[in-house]
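Residues and backbone
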Amino acid sequence: MQPPVTPASTISTGPSPLPRSPTISSSPSAATRRQLFVSAGGLLLIAAAGSNNASSRGAAAAAAGYDPVTEAERAASAAVSLRVGEAVRLLDLGRDLQARGEFPEALASFTAVVSGYKDLALSEYARVGRALVLYEIGDRDESITEMEDVSVALKGYPEIHAALAAALYADKHAPLLAENQFTIATLLDPHYTDLAYVRDTKHWPPSLVTSLKNFITLS
């Protein structure tokens, strides 16, 4: 018996095509909302940038106008500068007068620095000049006492150690103490072994140059 014949119209030749999804079109109202959102976002960015610029300008102006130094501090600084300048002037004047051999006038200038500006460190160097000049025209005991005191305050300052060595040897007859002081001086500055240096460069008074000569030559 022949199998039954299936009509051609009922025979499937492959998978059926998938139905197409319906196309969704944007409505005019949705597009309008997106445009408004973008526009609003841009305005917010512009406003934020303007606010930041204004804040930066305000901060810069505030920083430019800020002065950490008060008027009282500025006035105090000016007063200190004037005092230091006057002390330096007197110290230099004393050294110039000493170099010219005007020892009483030099002593007055050095004493003015020591008495009027003792709170300044440079007054210790005026004490050096005062001690050297006192050795020439004043009380040698007072001069040596001043030298000993300054040699502690300015320990390591070669000139005061060399001058003290000369005075201790010639006036106090203390050769060992003098040798100790001179060793300190010449280790720091060997020029103090040269009498011409202390006479012509450092402008020591004649009597102190003689005392140093006696010490160096052991005479």
Notes: Residues 1-19, 21-26 have pLDDT under 50 and may be disordered. Residues 28-65 form the longest helix (38 residues). The chain is about 70% helix and 0% strand. Residues 21 and 174 are 122 Å apart (CA to CA).
